[in-house]
Write a structure and sequence with these properties.
Helix content: 40-55%
CATH topology of the largest domain: Jelly Rolls
Shape: globular
Strand order of the largest sheet: 2-6-4-5
Number of helices: 9
Order of helices and strands: HHEEEEEHEEHHHEEHHEEH
CATH architecture of the largest domain: Sandwich
Radius of gyration: 19 Å
Length: about 290
């Protein structure tokens, strides 16, 4: 495999006319600055909320101006969550799906003894519970790992999209398919990779996903998890995690200081991790 991961070719399409909002969407704003004062500020606020989602989707296929407008029109409200606050509670029956605008969130399950297993991490541009549109009842929770800004799309609007917009439906379906692919990679990592390889693979994945939504600076990115939380992600003890991180630092592969993770040797890190980003489907092609 090539020792570098080429940056996805993202073709951006911007609307130069007034954003069309479907008549069936009743737009509500929890935050006044998102546009209760007029259409110009409204459009600007919605554009900010949807930007990461468009970057995410456009790393897989072209999103037409009409589809972009439909997605903008489906944002009904937004909200901010504090660290450790549940964004979606286990056992709940949400009537909307939640999009991460800023921050890190995690999917988790609690065991009977109170221990927690984190089963996935979510970053800007990710839907954390698009599957709840069909599953109805959440069998797990979603928690904010950092201060999170999220936006909501009502399930009734998603239902109409599935009935009238086949291409956009396929793109949203792809989002859940990629979630499944990420879960498969995590299972392989837990079962077959050494802890050193496992950590390296996770950092490679998070870096690539953040780069798609323009959340990296060079080979550095914001990584707000504590070591205890990262141990939850990896399913190992914090002592084992700390020792493994020290080895990666001594080998000159990365640094992690003040919530900033910097990859110092990308070719060696992906070689160690055996990282192949194919499972993230980062090619712009017809879907």
């Amino acid at each position: 495999m090539d020792a570098s991961v080429s940056k996805p070719r993202v073709k951006r399409l911007f609307l130069k006319t007034t954003v069309f909002i479907p008549s069936y969407v009743n737009v509500k704003c929890d935050r006044p600055h998102l546009g209760l004062g007029g259409s110009a500020s409204f459009s600007k606020g919605i554009n900010k909320l949807i930007e990461s989602l468009l970057l995410n989707l456009e790393s897989h296929d072209i999103v037409s101006p009409r589809e972009q407008a439909l997605l903008r029109g489906m944002i009904t409200r937004d909200r901010r969550f504090k660290v450790d606050e549940d964004i979606v509670a286990e056992g709940s029956r949400p009537t909307h799906s939640t999009l991460i605008v800023e921050g890190f969130a995690a999917r988790y399950k609690y065991m009977a003894d109170g221990t927690r297993q984190i089963t996935s991490l979510h970053v800007a541009g990710d839907f954390v519970d698009l599957h709840a549109f069909l599953l109805k009842t959440m069998d797990h929770g979603i928690v904010a790992m950092s201060p999170c800004h999220v936006a909501f799309m009502e399930h009734s609007d998603l239902k109409r999209i599935t009935e009238t917009e086949p291409h956009l439906t396929r793109l949203l379906w792809l989002d859940t398919v990629i979630d499944g692919a990420i879960h498969r990679e995590w299972i392989v990592a837990m079962g077959r990779r050494s802890k050193k390889e496992h950590i390296a693979h996770l950092f490679c994945e998070i870096y690539v996903r953040l780069r798609v939504v323009q959340q990296t600076t060079g080979f550095s990115f914001h990584f707000p998890l504590t070591q205890l939380e990262l141990a939850d992600v990896l399913g190992i003890s914090i002592v084992h995690l700390n020792k493994t991180l020290q080895i990666l630092r001594k080998e000159g592969l990365l640094t992690w200081v003040s919530q900033t993770l910097t990859i110092l040797d990308w070719p060696q890190l992906i070689k160690l991790a055996q990282f192949d980003p194919t499972y993230l489907s980062l090619s712009v092609e017809s879907r």
